[in-house]
């Protein structure tokens, strides 16, 4: 029983990381209605930036805050320079652009920082009072970080005029323009928020899996599964889906298929959700009148 509880809470901790990346995926999907396949590599690159800042002498939280700001600006610039000109392009062309961004960030990280595995510090002390035998302090912290980001985003989208404008621009750009909303700026803001969220997720992942250019590959697949399960157009649903995937991956991988086939759990979940309930648990069903 203790082993089962340990695997359950470890799955929740892992799910907190998946939830953070799923949240970033949903942010960009809401803005562009496309899946950013480079989201994991952008988060990885941001984590390398944080590592470089700490190597230069900045304390952890100073490097953390500066990395979030840089990631926000970098993602917003990518939207303006790369994604916006593709607005009227075919779907396949946009997918190719996202794959190109994935390759660019992966190669750039390897070129600038090397392919050797590096240690990345955790902001949560290993002997903190909230750690336990079932869940380490970093695992508890990763869950809290994911929940805090959800709360902040919910407040931003529900109680601020900019958040409401961003929701309107994502859901109906033509009508938003008619009421005076600058849709272009809102899309840049959406990308910037996704970049910032991804950077936080990367800095939560790195202490667990170590820092190298390949660290986010599997995480992105699990996060994508979580976003689909919860609803690719629903931030709260994506976070819920991330936790669900984390728990299922840990339990099924440990007791059913083994650790070697854990990644197949995410792939099965993706296919199953697309077949049974494409809109996800909390996603909106879109009905078109003909």
Would you mind describing this structure in some detail?
GO terms for molecular function: transmembrane transporter activity. The chain crosses the membrane at residues 6-28, 60-82, 94-117, 137-166, 187-209, 215-232, 239-257, 263-283. Keywords: Amino-acid transport, Cell membrane, Membrane, Transmembrane, Transmembrane helix, Transport. It is a multi-pass membrane protein. With 290 residues, the protein is mainly α. The protein has a domain at 21-215. Helix content is 73%, strand content 0%. It has helices spanning 2-32, 39-55, 60-83, 91-113, 137-159, 161-171, 173-178, 183-209, 217-230, 235-255, 262-276. The mean pLDDT is 83.
Mean pLDDT: 83
| N-to-C SSE string, H for helix and E for strand | HHHHHHHHHHH
What percentage of residues falls in helices of 4 or more residues?
Answer: over 70%
Beta-strand residue fraction: under 5%
N-C termini distance: 55 Å
Protein name: Inner-membrane translocator
GO molecular function: transmembrane transporter activity
Subcellular location: Cell membrane
Keywords: Amino-acid transport, Cell membrane, Membrane, Transmembrane, Transmembrane helix, Transport
């Amino acid at each position: 029983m203790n082993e089962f509880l340990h695997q359950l809470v470890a799955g929740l901790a892992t799910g907190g990381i998946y939830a953070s990346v799923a949240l970033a995926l949903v942010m960009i999907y809401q803005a562009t209605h496309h899946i950013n396949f480079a989201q994991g590599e952008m988060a990885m690159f941001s984590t390398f930036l944080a590592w470089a800042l700490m190597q230069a002498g900045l304390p952890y939280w100073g490097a953390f805050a500066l990395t979030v700001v840089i990631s926000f600006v970098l993602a917003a610039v990518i939207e303006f320079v790369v994604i916006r000109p593709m607005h009227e392009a075919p779907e396949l062309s946009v997918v190719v652009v996202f794959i190109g961004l994935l390759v660019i960030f992966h190669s750039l990280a390897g070129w600038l920082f090397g392919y050797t595995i590096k240690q990345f510090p955790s902001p949560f002390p290993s002997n903190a009072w909230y750690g336990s035998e079932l869940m380490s302090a970093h695992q508890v912290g990763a869950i809290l970080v994911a929940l805090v980001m959800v709360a902040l985003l919910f407040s931003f989208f529900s109680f601020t005029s900019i958040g409401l404008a961003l929701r309107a621009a994502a859901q109906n750009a033509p009508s938003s323009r008619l009421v005076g909303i600058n849709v272009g700026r809102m899309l840049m803001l959406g990308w910037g928020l996704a970049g910032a969220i991804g950077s936080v997720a990367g800095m939560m992942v790195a202490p667990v899996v170590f820092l190298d250019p390949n660290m986010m590959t599997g995480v992105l697949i699990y996060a994508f599964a979580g976003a689909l399960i919860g609803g690719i157009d629903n931030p709260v649903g994506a976070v819920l889906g991330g936790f669900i995937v984390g728990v299922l991956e840990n339990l099924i991988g440990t007791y059913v298929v083994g650790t070697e086939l854990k990644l197949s759990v995410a792939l099965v979940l993706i296919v199953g959700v697309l077949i049974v309930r494409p809109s996800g648990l909390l996603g909106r069903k879109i009905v078109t009148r003909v």
